[in-house]
TrEMBL record:
Coiled coil: none annotated. Residues 130-311 form the Carbohydrate kinase FGGY C-terminal domain. The lineage of its organism: Bacteria, Bacillati, Actinomycetota, Actinomycetes, Micrococcales. It comes from the Bacteria. Keywords: Carbohydrate metabolism, Kinase, Transferase, Xylose metabolism. Belongs to the FGGY kinase family. Residues 6-121 form the Carbohydrate kinase FGGY N-terminal domain. InterPro entries: ATPase_NBD (IPR043129), Carb_kinase_FGGY_CS (IPR018483), FGGY_C (IPR018485), FGGY_Carb_Kinase (IPR050406), FGGY_N (IPR018484). This is Xylulose kinase. Pfam families: FGGY_C, FGGY_N. It comes from Cellulomonas bogoriensis 69B4 = DSM 16987. GO terms for molecular function: kinase activity; phosphotransferase activity, alcohol group as acceptor. One of its GO terms (biological process) is D-xylose metabolic process.
Length: 359
C-alpha cells in the first residue's frame, strides 16, 4: 500500500473525500514543477503540456516507475478516477524550460527533490549513505539499481544524476533530543555531556522514540515508551543516553532495511541539526557498527541546486559534460567499537508501545 506521503495516495484521498474537485483536475504537478513553470513565464491559461519535472520528484508520485522511466497512467487513473496531464520528465542535465531574451537565453534546470539535491551537493556516490537528523530522520543512499520494497520500509526514489536514491524516513529524530532536553531542563550541550557520561546501553534503560507516532515502521498511532527503568538507571545521564541511543537505533533500522534491499552501505555521513551533537557523533559509530563522517554544516540542498545549474549550463554547450567536481567541504570522521547489545535491547522492546489517547 503506498504511504501517505506519495502523490498517488493524496490523489486517491481527493477522489474519495472531494470527488467534485477530483473531477476538475486537468493536470497534476508538484510544487517544484509549478514553480519552474512559472519562472519560465507560464501561468493561468498557458499550455499545461509545457510542465516539466525531474526524475527524483517524479519517482515520489507513486505513478512514475524508476524501472522503466515512464509514467504508470493506469495507477494515476485508479487514484484520481481519470487521466490528466503530467509533466514531462527531463534528464539530470537537461533544460526544463528556456526563456529567450535579447541578452541571451535563460535556462531553467530540471530541479530536484530536497534529498536528491542534498545528495548531489554532498557528492554522494554508490555505497554512500546520508543520515539526516532534522525534525524527522532520513536515511538515503545512492544505488546503481532501482529499488522496490514491498514492505514499504524503503521508498525507491531516483536521484539527480541518473542513478537511484532509496530512502527511509522516520518522524522522530532531533525532536527526540529536544524532548529529552526539555524533560531534564537542560540545553542541548548539557544533554550531550550527560549522554556521554552514561555507559553504552544506559544500564538497560531503553527509549523507543515514537513521540509523534512513526512512519518507518508504519505506526501512526504509536507513542514513545521507556523500558527497563530501575533505581540504578533513573538518572539524568541515563535518560539522556537512552534518548540518543533510541533515536540512533531507529535510524539504524533504516540502514538495515537498505541492506535488505541489496543497497551497498560503505560510508555513512551524518548531516542535519542533530548531527551537531557531540554525543550523537560519538555514539553513532557504536550503534551503526561503522565509522561516521560528519561534514561541516552547510546548505547541502542549495549546494546541489547550484551544482545542477552549472551542469545544465555546461551540458547546453557540450552534451557529454558531466556534473562538475567541486571541492567537498571539510569533514571529521568518528570511530568507535560497535556495541551490539544496545541494538539488541532496543529490538527486544521496539514493539512494546501504547497507542495515543483516542486512537
Amino acid at each position: 500500500v503506498p504511504v501517505a506521503s506519495l502523490t498517488v495516495t493524496k490523489l486517491r484521498w481527493l477522489r474519495d473525500a472531494e470527488p467534485e474537485n477530483a473531477a476538475r483536475v486537468a493536470a497534476v504537478a508538484l510544487p517544484h514543477d509549478w514553480l519552474s513553470w512559472r519562472l519560465a513565464g507560464h501561468g493561468p491559461g498557458a499550455d499545461l503540456t509545457t510542465l516539466a519535472t525531474d526524475r527524483s520528484d517524479a519517482s515520489g508520485t507513486g505513478y512514475w516507475s524508476p524501472f522503466t522511466g515512464e509514467y504508470r497512467r493506469d495507477l494515476l487513473e485508479r487514484a484520481l478516477g481519470h487521466d490528466a496531464v503530467l509533466p514531462r520528465v527531463v534528464g539530470p542535465a537537461d533544460v526544463a524550460h528556456r526563456l529567450q531574451r535579447t541578452s541571451g537565453d535563460l535556462l531553467v534546470g530540471p530541479g530536484a527533490g530536497d534529498n536528491a539535491a542534498a545528495a548531489l551537493g554532498l557528492g554522494m556516490s554508490t555505497g554512500d549513505v546520508a543520515l539526516s537528523i532534522g525534525t524527522s530522520g532520513v536515511v538515503s543512499a545512492i544505488s546503481a539499481q532501482p529499488i522496490a520494497d514491498a514492505s514499504g520500509m524503503v521508498t525507491g526514489f531516483a536521484d539527480a544524476t541518473g542513478q537511484f536514491l532509496p530512502l527511509c524516513a522516520t518522524l522522530n529524530a532531533a525532536r527526540v533530543l529536544d524532548a529529552a532536553a526539555r524533560l531534564l531542563g537542560v540545553d542541548h550541550a548539557t544533554l550531550s555531556d550527560l549522554a556521554l557520561a552514561a555507559p553504552a546501553g544506559a544500564d538497560g534503560l531503553v527509549l523507543v522514540p515514537y513521540l509523534e507516532g512513526e512512519r518507518t515502521p508504519n505506526r501512526p498511532d504509536a507513542t514513545g515508551a521507556l523500558h527497563g527503568v530501575r533505581l540504578t538507571n533513573t538518572t539524568p545521564a541515563h535518560l539522556a543516553r537512552a534518548a540518543v541511543e533510541g533515536m540512533l537505533c531507529a535510524l539504524a533500522d533504516g540502514l538495515d532495511a537498505m541492506r535488505a534491499q541489496g543497497v551497498p552501505v560503505e560510508r555513512v555521513q551524518l548531516i542535519g541539526g542533530g548531527a551537531q551533537s557531540e554525543a550523537v557523533r560519538r555514539i553513532a559509530p557504536t550503534i551503526f557498527g561503522l565509522d561516521v563522517t560528519v561534514p561541516e554544516p552547510g546548505e547541502y540542498v542549495a549546494d546541489g541546486a547550484a551544482r545542477q545549474a552549472a551542469w545544465v549550463l555546461a551540458a547546453s554547450q557540450d552534451a557529454t559534460a558531466q556534473a562538475p567536481s567541486w571541492a567537498a567541504s571539510t569533514s571529521e570522521v568518528y570511530s568507535a567499537a560497535a556495541e551490539p547489545r544496545v541494538r539488541e535491547q532496543y529490538a527486544a522492546v521496539r514493539e512494546l508501545t501504547a497507542k495515543r489517547p483516542g486512537a
